[in-house]
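R.M. (postdoc): so does anyone remember the format we settled on? I'll just put the structure tokens first.
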């Protein structure tokens, strides 16, 4: 690597900022150029559907670093600019303002974009999405004056938005085509817990329903029902931002494909965060998850790998949610089709329980709902990957640490 080397980071979110931080902490003293689409400093996204959406507050609290940090660490931060072209042979990227930058190593931290509705009326002004801080500001302003909203999708973003809307006194209808919220992730038994929670808070859940069109005054369902709404909030998933990588001929499959050290099919290009479909050595396959923990922790591995040091990302997926008075943490990964095999410890009706997803009597994921100080034990159970006695797993009298085998 020539000295001084130039590392370019394409993307302006949490993963990008943490990568710049990790490179400096690892002793890299070359040039770092961080190119972000949004006009803001890099920020964290979880508050956008949680505390920031509900209360606003000081925007500065969501930023990863203040502006002074980038100056102090000699990070050339370019906001409001995107990488529009990647020339791998020339080791060069072109920016949306026409500038060309040469790189020695490049990190793709381009994230994801919301999946869009495609029904008639999808582009009406009152159709909102929640991905950016500006989206969150607009949605909060909408909730302050709306009487009723329709939320399309009962995933994490949809349910957190519904909770924020109810906290603002807005009437909410959630439209979900599956028979329970979060069905593919949690299965029907735990999905029913979240359905009950929202119904108790006055949310009108329309399950097994599909939006056929967005109208001037709401949405029309496939069965002909019309739901009046001042705004329609769409939360039907996200799509990784792979256009740049694909156009440059990098391997792309549900994200930018990487090895465990977050290296792409080009040895000088790496990927981290929502866009990376990385090989996970602990789980034995490629995995792309849009979780805060990945964006937080993968960049340290990417930085070491960019510097030619041995590294591998094997952290278990982790995420959390806060809805009304319910708090939840989840660790592990349930492959498609395995969300139904679950063991419960605690009281589902009171919504105070632990849940364990199993495959061949081995815990592959675990969740705590309003039972705290258990996350380390749950993580250890997943990491142990050993067959367990289901009765003991469900019995609160059996300490979790007694079930963990070396």
């Amino acid at each position: 690597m020539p000295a001084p080397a130039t590392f370019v980071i394409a993307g302006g979110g949490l993963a990008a900022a943490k990568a710049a931080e990790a490179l400096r902490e690892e002793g890299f003293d070359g040039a770092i150029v961080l190119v972000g689409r949004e006009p803001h400093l890099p920020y964290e996204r979880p508050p956008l559907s949680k505390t920031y959406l509900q209360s606003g507050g000081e925007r500065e609290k969501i930023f990863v670093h203040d502006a002074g940090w980038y100056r102090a660490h000699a990070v050339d931060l370019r906001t409001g600019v995107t990488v529009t072209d990647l020339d791998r042979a020339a080791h060069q990227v072109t920016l949306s303002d026409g500038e060309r930058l040469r790189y020695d190593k490049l990190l793709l931290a381009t994230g994801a974009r919301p999946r869009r509705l495609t029904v008639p009326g999808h582009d009406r002004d009152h159709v909102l999405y929640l991905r950016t801080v500006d989206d969150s500001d607009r949605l909060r302003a909408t909730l302050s004056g709306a009487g009723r909203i329709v939320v399309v999708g009962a995933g994490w973003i949809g349910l957190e938005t519904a909770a924020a809307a109810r906290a603002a006194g807005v009437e909410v209808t959630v439209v979900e085509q599956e028979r329970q919220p979060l069905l593919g992730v949690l299965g029907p038994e735990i999905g029913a817990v979240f359905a009950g929670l929202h119904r108790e808070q006055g949310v009108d859940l329309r399950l097994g329903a599909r939006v056929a069109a967005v109208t001037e005054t709401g949405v029309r369902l496939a069965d002909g029902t019309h739901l009046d709404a001042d705004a329609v909030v769409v939360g039907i998933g996200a799509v990784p931002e792979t256009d740049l990588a694909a156009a440059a001929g990098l391997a792309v499959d549900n994200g930018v494909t990487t090895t465990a050290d977050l290296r792409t099919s080009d040895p000088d290009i790496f990927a981290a965060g929502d866009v990376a479909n990385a090989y996970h050595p602990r789980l034995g396959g490629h995995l792309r998850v849009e979780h805060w923990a990945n964006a937080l922790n993968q960049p340290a591995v990417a930085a070491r790998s960019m510097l030619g040091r041995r590294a591998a990302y094997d952290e278990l997926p982790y995420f959390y949610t806060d809805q009304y008075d319910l708090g939840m943490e989840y660790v592990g990964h349930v492959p498609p089709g395995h969300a139904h095999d679950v063991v419960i410890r605690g009281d589902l009706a009171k919504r105070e329980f632990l849940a364990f997803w199993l495959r061949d009597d081995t815990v592959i994921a675990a969740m705590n709902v309003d039972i705290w100080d258990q996350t380390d034990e749950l993580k250890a159970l997943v990491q142990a990957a050993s067959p367990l006695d289901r009765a003991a797993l469900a019995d609160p009298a059996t300490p979790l640490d007694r079930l963990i085998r070396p």
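R.M.: ...and that's the designed sequence above, right after the tokens. Also worth knowing: The longest helix spans residues 183-200. The chain has a mean pLDDT of 95.
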